[in-house]
Amino acid sequence: MTDPTSNTQNQGKVLCHDGSPCVNIQCSVCGFIMHVHRTQLPANYKDYELRTHCKRCGTELCLPPITDWTGDKKVRLAKPKEK
Fold first, then answer.
1. Domains in the chain: how many in total?
2. Is 19 domain-assigned?
3. What are the mean pLDDT values of the chain's consecutive 10-residue runs (83 residues total)?
4. What is the dihedral of CA 20, 70, 14, 82, to 10 degrees?
5. Is residue 1 part of a domain?
């Protein structure tokens, strides 16, 4: 199966084309798969949920705190922000 985010596998870690660690996330509304770079997050990212917008449908999404950057290529499902 082809990785839809075009990430590469290197020594057990998911890396973006620029070599930075990232995590794959999927919009639970439209199914689009995207990725977030670890370098884009603050140092204390493990203490907070991640909020982002789907690049396809624009839905504001929430993802539980990311504590695992091991690069298992698991796609994490992001749910719409609760109103």
1. 1
2. yes
3. 44 68 87 85 79 92 76 69 72
4. -90
5. no
Domain that holds residue 64: 8-80
Which pLDDT score is estimated for 14?
66
Distance CA 57, CA 1 (A): 24
Residue 3 maps to a domain: no
At residue 46, the pLDDT reads 79
